[in-house]
Amino acid sequence: MNETIAETTSDERQTLPELRFRLPGAWQQVRLDDPETARADVKALIERQVGRQDERAALRGELRAALTDRLQSAVESGAIALFVALEIEGLPLSAYYTVYLPAQPISGAVGTSADAVAGVFETGLRQADPGATVVRVASEESIALRTHRHQAVDVPTEEGEPQRQLDTLVVDYWLTVPDTKRVVLVSFATALGGIEEIMLDLFDAIIEVSYWVR
């Protein structure tokens, strides 16, 4: 079991508790303060975990496309942290997640209880996307609202080859921050979209054992 911390640096973030994760397998954080360095780190990470053999070129291309897409989204959206699973149950680079802190507290919540904040936020989620499936996942001090979707990511191909797309499963958890009207977003993604239920169970389990440190 591996433990990671969603570290923050601003004065505002330092007044909030830190969200920590107990993770299966081995994970690595990719720093987001320098996008060019982050992209180089992702490339090196893929080659180290998958190898540089010619027969694995397709796999490297798929992983590079998926991770680069996730990295770009994290940087553009102001993510706090990006973590990559180096290995889970023998599968290299099978999942990754980003942590975001939205700028504004939840307006309309009566009190700071997890149930009150989650209730108001859940209403907003359902209004924003009436077709979304919203599932509640409880941890020790938080209520998480989970939504998920499939996203097609273009995989770079050699000239003359047909364009390929990678089915990526994206699973978002909006966690209430204890004793505040705030939420954090923990967004998981995996190229193993074909085993959706198994990956949802895995990500749910990670959220359920996450905890806060004041």
Structural overview:
By secondary structure, the protein is α+β, with helices and mostly antiparallel strands. The chain has one domain (2-213). The chain is 32% helix and 33% strand. The strands form two sheets. Strands 3, 4, 5, 6, 7, 8, 9 and 10 form an eight-stranded antiparallel β-sheet that branches. A three-stranded antiparallel β-sheet has the order 1-2-11. The two termini are 22 Å apart. Residues 7-11 have low confidence and may be disordered.
Helices and strands in order, then pairings?
Layout: E1 2-5, H1 11-14, E2 18-23, E3 26-30, H2 35-50, H3 57-76, E4 81-88, E5 91-92, E6 96-100, H4 114-128, E7 135-138, E8 143-155, E9 164-176, E10 183-190, H5 196-208, E11 211-213
Antiparallel strand pairs: 1-2, 2-11, 3-4, 4-5, 4-6, 6-10, 7-8, 8-9, 9-10
Give the averaged pLDDT, no decimals. Answer: 85
Low-confidence stretches: 7-11
How would you sum up the major sheet?
8 strands, antiparallel
What is the CA-CA span between the terminal residues?
22 Å
Globally, the shape reads: globular
Radius of gyration: 18 Å
Provide tags for this entry.
214 residues; alpha+beta; eight-stranded antiparallel beta sheet; 5 helices
What is the compact description of this entry?
The chain is an alpha+beta fold and 214 residues long. The chain has five helices and eleven strands. Residues 7-11 have low confidence and may be disordered.
